[in-house]
Amino acid sequence: MVIYYILAAAAGAVLALAIYIIVSRLISKDRADVFLEKAVAEAETAKQQKMIEAKEHFLQLKSEHDRKVNEKNNQLRDRENNIRSKETQLNQLQSELGRRQHDLDSQKGQLNAQKDQLAKKEAECAALTAEANKQLETVAGMSAKQALEMLVENLKAEARSEAQAYINDTMDEARLNAAKEAKRIVINTIQRTATETAIENAVTTFPIESDEVKGRIIGREGRNIRALEAATGVEIVVDDTPDAILLSGFDPVRREVARLALHQLVIDGRIHPARIEEVVAKVSKQLEDEILETGKRTCIDLGIHGMNIELVKLIGRMKYRSSYGQNLLQHSREVANICSIMASELGLNPKVAKRAGLLHDIGKVSEDDPELPHALLGAKLAEQYKERPEVVNAIGSHHEEMEMTSIYSPLVLVGDAISGARPGARREVIESYIKRLKGMEDLAASYKGVTKSYAIQAGRELRVIVGADKVSDEQAARLSSDIAQRIQDEMTYPGQVKITVIRETRSVAIAK
Question: Which of 78, 97, 100, 507 falls between 20 and 30 A from 63, CA-CA?
Answer without folding.
Answer: 78
